[in-house]
Design brief:
The protein has 458 residues and is α+β, with helices and mostly antiparallel strands. The protein is 40% helix and 10% strand. The chain has one domain (19-453): Glycoside hydrolase 144 (GH144) (Glycosyltransferase).
Length: 458
């Protein structure tokens, strides 16, 4: 267990303009929150004894049961979400736009390797569900993997966060991103596990095996967030609980350039509570409790620290309770309508959420907050999504499903959708329905090796 696990730091919260900057702060700090917030960092000795963190174990591996009407609604959500990954990707390179107009394709060309990782997995789901021609779907997978392996610029196997979707040119002077490379590779390995195609399997394997994970440690105990050719490694590291679970597990499972096993113990796991709900967390938006679970099946498994599926369920419960407490200030929040995570806003992209209150909370609703937690609280999250679809209709629902965010009181509905938010919606809806992504991904020998080296057991 890291020696600074109990470190407490008071922090004044300021809004940040991008997901990346919020992640940097979450990864730098273990936080004790001001007394004005009822969520706070607790010494482990003060937590209930039901588990090391006071978190109840996850309820086995059975998928939630939905009514026929609920299944039809989730199918509608998933098919609309998949359409994004089909239409907002370049058909020649397979690279998926970082964002796109909610009404349909536009001229923007900035792709995101994280969105492409979600998109590769979306192609698996679509082929399995019969949403498109199987041969066309396989051709898209092959085009994507061929481009990534042969044409996309890389360094030690890591890829740039943003690229021109047609040429692969680096965009926005962005970093080679460790976490976004992991998101991409999760999609590649999902395709390797699902498609019975030797070239798909070979390309996915070569993409994964060329990544030099220890290089990204840069001599430290934890992974750097990235590297730039102009300045070298980023100062910020993945050293506190977040969506980093997938990053370390992918590195631990590598058959060619594996991370040392001790890196799993090197990052901090701060303990929080909100209204009696205990969970490991960080001062970061709700998506940090969701992204790793899109692929890795933590149900019925735990390491020496926690049951991470139960932990994310607890964090979602705390988030819902916090949103309901905000109803005094923003009356739209209710049992039927809650959820705030990194998203667009009326004033630009914001890394907001809570508890504690982080960013300029203003009454905006972010549909992927509930959608990304469907496996954790299926009925409660489905209730929110149904409310949005029925109450706000075509203002909040467009060609690719839910708009990224909306403010009902201000009559603002985002004209865009964002790839990673559409992606977490699709994958977690499918996992809640069938566990399909978990099923194929966990069959992979390298994935299983990573979890074994991290010490997971039933």
């Amino acid at each position: 267990m890291p020696s600074n696990m109990h470190k407490k730091i008071d922090l004044s919260v300021h809004p940040k303009p991008s997901r990346r900057e919020w992640l940097a702060r979450a990864a730098r700090l273990s936080l004790a929150l001001p007394a004005a917030f009822s969520a706070h960092l607790l010494p482990f000795a003060d937590l209930p004894s039901t588990s090391p963190y006071g978190i109840l174990p996850s309820p086995g591996s059975a998928a939630p049961q939905f009514t026929a009407d609920q299944e039809a609604f989730l199918e509608e959500i998933e098919k609309a979400s998949f359409l994004y990954f089909w239409e907002a990707a370049d058909p020649e390179t397979g690279q998926v736009k970082d964002r796109c107009g909610a009404d349909g394709p536009d001229a923007r060309r900035v792709s995101s390797i994280a969105a492409t990782g979600f998109g590769l997995t979306a192609l698996c789901i679509a082929e399995r569900r019969g949403w498109g021609d199987s041969a066309s779907i396989r051709r898209r997978v092959l085009a994507t993997l061929r481009f990534l392996f042969s044409q996309a610029p890389q360094e030690h196997g890591f890829l740039y966060h943003f690229m021109d979707m047609r040429t692969g040119a680096r965009m926005r002077r962005c970093e080679l991103s460790s976490i976004d490379t992991a998101l991409l590779l999760c999609g590649a390995l999902a395709c390797r596990a699902y498609f019975a195609d030797e070239e798909i399997r070979s390309l996915a394997t070569r993409l994964y095996e060329r990544v030099d994970w220890p290089w990204m440690l840069n001599g430290g105990a934890t992974l750097s967030m990235g590297w730039k050719p102009e300045s070298g490694f980023l100062e910020d590291r993945w050293d506190s609980y977040s969506e980093l679970l997938m990053l370390y597990l992918m590195g631990l499972g590598s058959p060619t350039h594996a991370l040392p096993a001790e890196t799993w113990d090197a990052w901090e796991r701060p303990a929080y509570q909100y209204k009696g709900v205990h969970y490991i967390g960080s001062e970061a938006p709700l998506f940090v409790h969701q992204f790793s679970h899109a692929w890795f099946d933590f149900r019925g498994r735990r390491d020496r620290y926690a049951d991470y599926f139960a932990n994310s369920a607890a964090a979602t419960k705390a988030h819902k309770a916090w949103c309901l407490d905000l109803a005094k200030e923003f009356p739209d929040y209710s049992e039927d309508l809650w959820g705030i995570t990194s998203s667009d806003s009326r004033h630009g992209y914001v890394g907001w959420g809570g508890p504690p209150r982080s960013g300029p909370i203003d009454g905006t609703i972010v549909p992927c907050a509930a959608a990304g937690s469907l496996p954790f609280l299926p009925q409660e999250c489905l209730r929110v999504l149904r409310t949005i679809r029925e109450k706000y209709g075509t203002r909040a629902w467009k060609r690719y499903g839910f708009v990224d965010a909306f403010h009902p009181r201000k009559n603002w509905y985002n004209p865009d959708v964002i790839g990673i938010d559409v992606g977490i919606t699709l994958l977690m809806a499918e996992n809640a329905r069938s566990g399909f992504v978990w099923e194929i991904f966990m069959k992979d020998a390298d994935v299983r090796r990573g979890m074994e080296r991290a010490g997971f057991h039933p």
